[in-house]
Amino acid sequence: MQGVNDMKSWFSLGLAIGLGLTALLAGCSSANPEKVRIGEVTRSLFYAPQYIAVAKGFFKEEGLDVELTTTWGGDKTMTALLSDGIDVALVGSETSIYVNQQGATDPVVNFAQLTQTDGTFLVSRKPVGQFSWDHLKGTVFLGQRKGGMPQMVGEFVLKKNGIDPHKDLQLIQNIEFKNIAAAFASGTGEYVQLFEPEASQFEKEGVGHVIASFGKESGNVPYTSFMAKKSYIEKHQAAIQKFTNAIYKGQQWVASHTPKETAEAIKPYFDQIDPAILESAVKRYLEQGSYATDPILDEAEWNNLQAIMETAGELKQRADYSKLVDTSFAEKAKEGR
Fold it and tell me: Cβ distance 310 to 268 under 8 Å?
């Protein structure tokens, strides 16, 4: 009996040691999360679910340590991604098509969609009663950078409403993205295409008046997505899945909370902006369905993107959805796997 008792004692001790080691290893794992470097094309409350995922600890819950850098421009963002300066890019899906058109051997793949409409609004300098797109004919229009999604969507919407942007109005598109709002405020243009919160800010200050939404006019499109080089995704599949899980949690949080709650949560990222302006801007994006509620980039949205690019003359040939989009991580995130 003594031998049996000794065996039980050793078994209990071994089990305790084993459980202790497991707990220790788990603690080490959470203490040393895997690092993922994100490059966002601009700092925008249009990306609210991403900031929520950081602020609410959803990336940490998944065992990731994310480093967020604002890279200021699609070209700079893709240069950083292709040169391994960042691991994941948050940028317009059109950039992955541009890279593919250049014959990249390591294609950039979209794996999680963040926004599903254009995020710009048509702002007029003077109050407009009953707005008609014909009002723009013969005016000075301050547009966005050529080849970028805002400008392509702008041209798509104008043409859809019977306006040739290069013939029917004076189109200005040589001003850097970050300086467009300031240029309009200083007197350039009669109409301007702006993101939030500048649109709401201008309304509050009486500088301009929001009269139409390019997002509503252009329909669903993968406007901003998370993407990475195919080689990176293949080598870091577990990290990409965790990343996508965190983004989905952020999307669901925004969808289930009030604009005020979201505005309060993302305030640290926009500390120079009036909380009331943040709230009204988030509300405007929620009402028009700009924030995707899951990270799946479907083929219909992809085809709409390419139709917009074709209209703008920026697409050499249609890009293969199956080559540049991988929805497997988004689908697993949505299913909770």
Answer: no
Question: Max alpha carbon distance in the chain (Å)?
Answer: 102
Report helix, strand or coil for 129. coil
pLDDT (tens digit per residue) in 195-251: 999 999 999 999 999 999 999 999 999 999 999 999 999 999 999 999 999 999 999
Choices 3.40.50.300, 3.40.1080.10, 3.90.180.10, 3.40.190.10: CATH for 120-218: 3.40.190.10
d(CA 264, CA 203): 21
Q: Which residues pair with 121 in a beta bridge?
A: 194, 213
Residue 319 phi/psi, 5-degree rounding, is -95, 140
Element (H, E) at 252: helix 237-255
CA separation for the pair 109, 111 (Å, rounded): 6
Q: Please, which residues bridge with residue 68 across strands? A: 38
Burial track 65-85 (b if 16+ CB lie within 10 A, e otherwise) = ebebebbbbbbebbebbeeee
CA dist 334 and 298 (Å) reads 14
Q: What are phi and psi of 202, to 5 degrees?
A: -65, -35
Taking only the tens place, the pLDDT of each residue in 265-305 is 999 999 999 999 999 999 999 999 999 999 999 999 999 99
Looking at domain 32-117+221-335, does it have CATH number 3.40.50.720? no
